[in-house]
Design a protein that fits this description.
With about 130 residues, the chain is mainly α. Helices cover about 85% and strands about 0% of the residues. α1 packs antiparallel against α2 and α2 packs antiparallel against α3. The protein is globular, with a radius of gyration of 17 Å.
């Protein structure tokens, strides 16, 4: 990696970390596109993102714990259940063409974005019904 690529990676990592801390989004939604932009293939980006998420998750959970927002039991249940899902997902990811995987990831991102817009608009209508 060149010095420019490393500097770019550090900048994008810091930005992704800030956004993950602010919005509580899974790091993969931010890290995978960043790593693809840095030249990694889709599978490499996804695998690298899984490891890169560990320090982000640790720091974010520690910070949120201080504010009293962390629900450890719920996190443990979801985390343990996701172990099997990760194994199945990794097997699926390595069995489909990388171009298809990239399209599926894009669909996921659009789906998440659409859901956020829908929830925000629904809450606004509930809060301000006369403006609908």
């Amino acid at each position: 990696m060149s010095a420019t690529t490393i500097a770019f990676a550090i900048t994008l990592g810091l930005a992704a970390g800030v956004l993950a801390g602010m919005f509580g989004v899974g790091g993969g939604i931010l890290f995978v596109p960043t790593l693809v932009a840095l030249g990694l293939g889709q599978l490499e980006a996804q695998a690298t993102s899984l490891l890169a998420i560990l320090p982000t998750v640790t720091a974010g959970a520690w910070s949120q714990r201080r504010y009293g927002h962390l629900r450890a039991r719920s996190a443990l249940v979801v985390g343990i259940a996701s172990i099997a899902g990760v194994e199945v997902g990794a097997r699926i990811a390595t069995s489909v063409p990388e171009s298809s995987l990239r399209v599926l990831f894009a669909v996921l991102l659009f789906g998440v974005a659409a859901h956020l817009v829908w929830r925000t608009r629904r809450r606004q209508r509930a809060r301000y019904p006369e403006s609908s």
